[in-house]
Amino acid sequence: MNDDLTPDERTALDALPLTADPPRSLEDVVVRSLRASGVLHAPGPRRLPVLLAAGLALFAAGIAVGRAPLKPKPHGARFLLLLFDATSAGTSDEASRVAEYRAWIRGIAHPGTIVRGDKLAPEARLLARGAAGISETPLDGEPPGGVLGGLFVIEAKDWNEALALAKTCPHLSHGGRVVVRKVQET
After folding, report:
1. How far apart are CA 159 and CA 110, in angstroms?
2. Do the Cβ atoms of 178 and 171 come closer than 8 Å?
3. Considering the chain, what is the average pLDDT of its residues?
4. Domain regions of the chain by residue span
5. What is the CATH number of domain 77-182?
6. Is pLDDT of 132 > 70?
7. Buried b (16+ CB within 10 A) or exposed e, 82-94
């Protein structure tokens, strides 16, 4: 409330009912003044279709944007790091090794570096095409070249960066080998 009122003005103001509607003439004066200043626009039959069309266009644009796949901007080329174990025997300190690999990933990761990393299950099947068609052979034991134990897919700007990252992989310190392959762009 305004404290600059005289005692008579305060008394008159307090005497007004709290639920009284303003006179119609005052409402008309306020509406005309707001329209003249551009704050309030007169309702017009042409505005409704325009507003509906704009609303539908925004709704359709929102749906289109929502369905668009989000593709991160590639850091460079993709490379596959294939981790070959020295032996097929599992290690007794599997949990500490997994923790070591996770720490390595966190240490080299920056946006776009690590795309995926997985440990592979020991079961494997070898498929080969021969004279009788395609044969399937379970791989019991170690295939030539060692057991493929896991993989990482990384992004690097070039071969040098991919090889530098691969050289820091803890798999090498456990007697394993890392094969680096560039993923062919399609």
Report:
1. 17
2. yes
3. 74
4. 20-67, 77-182
5. 3.30.70.1060
6. yes
7. bbbbeeeeeeeee
